[in-house]
Specification:
By secondary structure, this protein is α+β, with helices and mostly antiparallel strands. The protein has helices at about 10-25, 45, 55-60, 70-75, 80-90, 110-120, 175-180, 245-250, 275-285, 290-300, 300-310, 325-335, 390-415, and strands at about 5, 25-30, 50, 95, 100-105, 125-130, 135-140, 140-150, 150-155, 155-160, 185-195, 195-200, 210-220, 225-235, 240, 260-265, 340-345, 355-360, 375-380. The protein has two domains: about 5-190 and about 355-415, 3-Layer(bba) Sandwich (FAD/NAD(P)-binding domain); about 195-345, no CATH class. Helix content is about 35%, strand content about 25%. The longest helix is centred in the last third of the chain and has 22 residues, at about 390-415. Bound molecules: flavin-adenine dinucleotide.
């Protein structure tokens, strides 16, 4: 008989399985696809930003928004330095990059997956690939059996670590929520987070343009500011993408009706309007004979020049020396407030993370055990927690996996 069954061979499931197997002889990991760590191997653009060095748990938790408080207990038990030690003790050197982001020194996410696979194998976890967990059998509010598409397993504990709903090709298609519902759990609405934004009417010549160090603010029709970010973003054929956009999307989850939001881009965030005026006046003094379109070429990426020429209504051949105060003001206003209408977030399939999930008030934060069914545990993205980019989401998956694995082994060994 397998005593502990883990559903899902991602970051959370592999951590949970390996930790559980240290204290329990029979641990079975069931993964519905043909391989382990599918999503993990594409994280961080294939490099895997596995945690963040932020030393204070309270600051780390702020990255999860208000729901993050649930993670205090798990982080006290297994935090970023524990995770770093975990991988380094298994001969996976790690390296810190800007913003405290930790990656494997090889910058290859597959090395993280390999290390976890070795970890579970060395601890004697049995692995079943291509097998899908379908149904929980619960009796007297205790876990009794798991039914898969192949067989019925009796067990003492089950850890659901089946992930969220994003990037479904990796195997994470929302099964964990259905299994949790069978146990009476409530699922808070599932929404895409850290996701590109969709627009209509992006000018074709902007597609492919990447902007760095810009400020982006989102407003609704009532002119209320809903979100603000600084950083990098790109125009794509479907809309807007890039780190600043992904972060913005976290605050826009419930804000869309149709194309009701405006994104204002400050293309010159470090220059005040006054400084920009002075800059153009200097150009007029030095290169007065040059044309307006040449000035635009100096202030803007090449792909934006035509759009600015169209939007500012100044003759492209006008000499810089002849540019009027009104011309200057119009140009500066556009440089500071280049506006794009945004219509919706891209679908959950394209999101880095699923917001929503198994409600945390039905889970014991000290053990990750269900408050409704004894012997049922949860770990990872399936739980209603999600964070900003920077390694926070994987740390949450590893920490909840660690605690669920340890707690399940503790409760199984008492039986
Ligand atoms: C493109 C991309 C890049 C990312 N980059 C980063 C990053 O750099 N840093 C970071 O912190 N986070 C990143 N994330 C988020 C991170 O990948 C997730 O937070 C993390 O993978 C969640 O781990 P998990 O184990 O909970 O779920 P998953 O990794 O999704 O694993 C769940 C597993 O369960 C299996 N499964 C599902 N249903 C069943 C079933 N019924 N029976 C058996 N098995 C089942 C699935 O096949 C899957 O293998 C990224 C996400 C994406 C999509």
């Amino acid at each position: 008989m397998s005593k502990i069954i883990i559903i899902g061979g991602g970051a959370a499931g592999m951590m949970a399985a390996g930790v559980a197997a240290k204290n329990c002889e029979e641990v079975l990991l069931i993964e519905k696809t043909g391989s382990l760590g599918n999503k993990l191997s594409i994280t961080g653009k294939g490099k895997c930003n596995l945690t963040n060095t932020e030393p204070k748990i309270s600051t780390f938790i702020e990255k999860f928004g208000v729901k993050g408080k649930f993670l205090y207990n798990c982080f006290y038990k297994f935090f970023n330095q524990d995770l770093i030690e975990f991988f380094e003790s298994k001969n996976l050197p790690l390296k810190e990059f800007s913003g405290g982001r930790i990656y494997p020194a090889s910058l290859n996410a597959r090395d993280v997956v390999k290390t976890l696979i070795e970890f579970i194998k060395n601890n004697g976890v049995q692995v079943k690939l291509d097998e899908r967990a379908v149904k929980l059998i619960i009796s007297d509010d205790k876990i009794k059996y798991l039914i898969t598409n192949e067989k019925k397993y009796s067990c003492d504990s089950i850890i659901i670590a089946a992930g969220g709903m994003s990037y479904p090709k990796t195997g994470s298609t929302g099964d964990g929520y259905e299994l949790a519902k069978q146990a009476g759990h409530t699922i808070s609405p599932l929404l895409p987070s850290l996701v590109p934004l969709k627009t209509e009417n992006i000018p074709k010549n902007l597609v492919g343009l990447k902007l760095k160090n810009v400020k982006v603010d989102v407003y609704n029709k009532e002119k209320e500011k809903l979100a603000s970010e600084f950083g990098e973003f790109s125009f794509t054929d479907y809309g807007l993408d890039g780190s600043a956009i992904l972060e913005l999307s976290r605050n826009l989850k419930n804000k869309f009706t149709k194309c009701n939001l405006e994104l204002k881009i400050d293309l010159k965030p470090v220059l005040t309007e006054k400084k920009l005026h002075n800059r153009i006046i200097r150009e007029a003094k030095k290169h007065g004979k040059q044309e307006y379109k040449t000035l635009l070429g100096k202030l803007l990426p090449k792909k934006m020049v035509t759009i600015f020429l169209r939007k500012t209504n100044v003759d492209p051949h006008k000499k810089i020396a002849s540019i009027t105060t009104e011309d200057r003001s119009e140009l500066i206003d556009l440089l500071k407030n280049f506006t794009v209408e945004i219509c919706r977030t891209a679908s959950i399939e394209n999101a880095i993370i699923t917001a929503g999930g198994i409600k945390t008030d039905q889970i014991n934060p000290r053990t990750m055990e269900s408050k409704l069914v004894q012997g049922l545990f949860f770990a990872g993205e399936v739980v209603d927690i999600d964070a900003a980019t920077g390694g926070y989401n994987l740390q949450a998956a590893f920490s909840t996996g660690y605690v669920a694995g340890k707690s399940a082994a503790g409760s199984s060994s008492n039986k």
